């Protein structure tokens, strides 16, 4: 797939994810698969591991075991920049200034940009916002 192609035709396969903070296990043998167009809700009480799981999926945290495959590519073996080109993550809380929707989507282009924002980046943001309505 080339960078300019806008497609949701990706499959996510998560298998055997384990993670602990110090000696306190938080995630144990987590697994699921999502095909194109599928949505998964992650529910649980505070401290259940929802944010930890998301951080393990995109390598903010490194799971102690398991695999995360996106379109048959192992995200856990990629560099942080390679992961950022494939997966977006917006934390629940941040100390930065509030961004508009447009700016937030444009921020997702950061791993693909050089020193400046190109017309291609703006075009991709416009296309995505139009597709999402």
TrEMBL record:
Signal peptide: none annotated. It holds the Pfam family ABC_tran. GO terms for molecular function: ATP binding; ATP hydrolysis activity. Keywords: Transport. Residues 27-120 form the ABC transporter domain. Belongs to the ABC transporter superfamily. PANTHER family: METAL TRANSPORT SYSTEM ATP-BINDING PROTEIN TM_0124-RELATED, MOLYBDATE IMPORT ATP-BINDING PROTEIN MOLC. This is ABC transporter domain-containing protein. It comes from Desulfamplus magnetovallimortis. The lineage of its organism: Bacteria, Pseudomonadati, Thermodesulfobacteriota, Desulfobacteria, Desulfobacterales.
